[in-house]
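Our collaborator T.R. sent over the components below with a one-line note: 'Predict the complex.' Nothing else. No constraints on interfaces, no templates requested, no preferences about which chain binds where. So this is a plain run: every listed entity goes in together, and whatever single assembly comes back becomes the starting point for the next discussion.
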Amino acid sequence: SQKIEQNSEALNIQEGKTATLTCNYTNYSPAYLQWYRQDPGRGPVFLLLIRENEKEKRKERLKVTFDTTLKQSLFHITASQPADSATYLCALDLNNNAGNMLTFGGGTRLMVKP
Amino acid sequence: DGGITQSPKYLFRKEGQNVTLSCEQNLNHDAMYWYRQDPGQGLRLIYYSQIVNDFQKGDIAEGYSVSREKKESFPLTVTSAQKNPTAFYLCASSIDKGLAGVSYEQYFGPGTRLTVT
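Returned assembly:
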């Protein structure tokens, strides 16, 4: 069956450290993968997008990797801050003929302690 | 300000009543989407629309209906046939040029929390 797995356990880290979140998928062949941030009671906000032929993408303190062999994406936040505390969602874009549709993982909650 | 709005933020209904959730965008996006999010879970697609007067069922369309009479608006009706309607509902929009090989971010509204008792 098709699955997108993100660690359902919250990730607790100390301020200043690098947070690494994992997104694994099974029986999908995404052309793109997107990462979103969601704060409690609010809609997700887009962070980064990576194509299947890109190994790595960076934006300020954020870095995403995409390994289509391992069927895994890693999302890194360097020099983490308490303001980075949120739930992070990965989403697969299968880029089929059905338009710009995304399939979301369950999200991982990140808690950055001062 | 460009963006996507949903109203109301909180909605309470009695079981057996239909309820309509509003979603409006002024981003000039062709595509609009409705998702449902349950506590601790990811987003599940209810319906999507790539163009005015056309929409498609997502993974969990049973008990829901939509319309897309205007580009800016994509209201969702939660009918009495939906067995577990209490959830957080999110509307989103995106560019959709109908091209393969391109991916666009989705812009989300603030959500409507529906409670049915």
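Summary for T.R.: Chain B touches chain A through 32 residues (CB under 8 Å).
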